[in-house]
Amino acid sequence: MKAIVILAIVIFALVVVGWLGLQARPRPFPAFPQQPPGLETVSLPDGLPAPVARFTRQVYGEDVPAIESAVITGRGTLRVGGITFPARFRFTHDAGKGYRHYIEATWFGLPLMKVSEHYLDGKSRLELPFGVSEGPKVDQGANLALWAESMWLPSIWITDPQVEWEPIDESTALLAVPFGEETERFVARFDPETGMLRLLESMRYRDGADEAKILWLNTAVQWGTVNGKTVPTVATVTWLDEGTPWAVFNVEDVVYNVDVQEYIRAKGP
């Protein structure tokens, strides 16, 4: 009986320690070291669907910046194997062309798992602690991620000639983006009161083994100002069949038009 009691106490202590480790936020990554240049602008074009024009004016006014690159840094949470870990992240974008993701899931603020992913030259490679994912279906998902994450640099949806908008109603529009020789589409839903983007919906393969696509939801939970830029300060990513977000991103630093040509092909934060 005494041995059972001791075992129960040890198990309880391990559970408590494990839980406490998941409550500790990691320190943020250092700010990206390059100073951003000034941004050139273009005039807001005519002919955009009503909710898209309203949203763009809310963010930029009549002059839309030409964004060529972005580095987005912050902290949040990442659900892996049913466990939600604190996390810190840095996303590097060659706007409309490719990206690199670096994410650390942490325990007591220390890196426990590292996620390194890139989508470059039309090909994706996702490196996880338990394996590597590549292939055409992974590329499809990565391309959708490229354009969904452009909610942190939404002027690319206006300035890139490959992007097309189609009207639906006063608070909804279709966003068409390139994928090689093909086209992928998002349903973009805007808040009818504020005019801000609220949700991007698309059909995406979850991994390279999936037979069918799954509805993938990118939600701009909260908009705010970071480094003088209006961006989603809180965003979530959800697979419809899971019902709740598997990732929450709290953005703390955004820089535009810095030189990322080498950095986007590097490793680590």
Give structural attributes.
single chain; about 270 residues; alpha+beta; 13-stranded antiparallel β-sheet; two-stranded antiparallel sheet; 15 strands; about 20% helix
Give a description of the structure:
- With 269 residues, the protein is of the alpha+beta class.
- Helix content is 19%, strand content 46%.
- The protein is built from four helices and 15 strands.
- The strands form two sheets. Strands 8-7-6-5-4-3-15-14-13-12-11-10-9 form a 13-stranded antiparallel sheet. It has a two-stranded antiparallel ribbon with strand order 1-2.
- The longest helix is centred in the N-terminal third of the chain and has 22 residues, at 2-23.
> What are the low-pLDDT stretches, counting only 5+ consecutive residues below 50?
none
Q: What would the average pLDDT be, to the nearest integer?
A: 91
**Order of SSEs:** HEHEEEEEEEHHEEEEEEE
Global geometry: globular
Largest sheet: 13 strands, antiparallel
Structural class: alpha+beta
Number of β-strand runs: 15
State the end-to-end distance. 51 Å
Helix content: 10-25%
